[in-house]
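Appendix B, Record 12. Input sequence as logged:
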Amino acid sequence: MQRGLKKIALAIVSLGLLWGLILGSVVSAKATEERVVRIGLPSIFTGAVASSTAPMCFGYVDAAKWATEQGGIGGIPVEVVWHEIGKAPMAQIVPAYKKLQMAGVVALVVVATCHGEVLLPRLQRDEMPLFMTDPFTAGCVSEPPWIFGMEPLWSSTFATAVKWFNERWTEPRPMRVAGICYNNPEGLSTFTDGYGTKAIEEMGVDFIGHEVIPMLGTLDSSVEWLRLAGEKADLVFVMAYGSSLNTVIKDCDRLEIQKKGIKVCGSTAVADWAAYSVVGKDLEGWYGVCPISHELLRISPNIKALEEAGVKRGYEPNRLPFFYVGTWHTMMVLCEGIRLAMEKVGYENLTGRPIRNGLETVKGFDSGLNIPPADLTSPHRPYWSAGIWIEQFRDGEFVTVSGKDCIEYIQDLSVVM
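Logged structural output:
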């Protein structure tokens, strides 16, 4: 009797396994037949830099959703597949890339330049294009480009901002410029890659050095601020984000650095609503570099779509973090590159190389956010920004002080090639 029951049980188990395999093959076949453009995101929604990176991740995701609602790319939906790496952003970037590859993504978007540096050899080998809403380091540059970005070198952005301040310098002596950066590749490159500092020295500016703080969890930057004040800096350029930036801003206010006659300017989107949400009025008086003008953004044709999506993320309509807007625009430019690729090879043949080729043909693309049209056709300019605005945080608002038109970068990536 027991032997008979055992046989029946084994038969039921076997039928169950067989049915499971049949169902599994049906699901796999359906997934294979599903027409969708998948874009991979090694996300940082959590962790010490999340105040800067979470808005970036939300921008990518929400822009892809909006693009799909508008008809997708040639009628095909766009989906962001993300894998969280916030606990260890550098240690987990390569495993995350491998998992995203297995998920069938045809392109990547990232939230940090250093991720591009780490992945570049694999991107070239696997023919996987990557788009970052960040400036470049020399380690992200290749011919042909497999990494596309927002601006030229971090150091070029720094030098372009210094040029604007130097043109307004009225003292008979040279302006003295210093820096504070956090300890990662893009932070250090701002002052050490040799391109930016050489450019400002050729302007007649004295670069008196820079201070380095931890990338994660800076608790105090008093020594760094006091040392630069003691060196009689006229302008301090800050390149840091997340919790470390918040500490730098609060210490700057507490030590009354600006009252000593020292101007403070943040790198790309350092002085932004994301930082303000943490430090509040301590940001008062700070200058900032931005490839999107807050004032022009408010009156842009497509701002309503961003505000409606941003409110769902907890952002105030008139206080969208720059990186939310920036990654939204990046996703739109990437989708345009994919559209151009599909026009040539079709959806069935859509892989990394055609997308990379498509991105190189993007020209005159306007996302409706009052950002100069994207032009990626030059091998020395695989980035969407045409220049920067200088803004200052005054009385609770970001005021554009450099004029209506953006300031062209003093260098493109040809200085590296």
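Confidence is low (pLDDT under 50) at residues 1-32.
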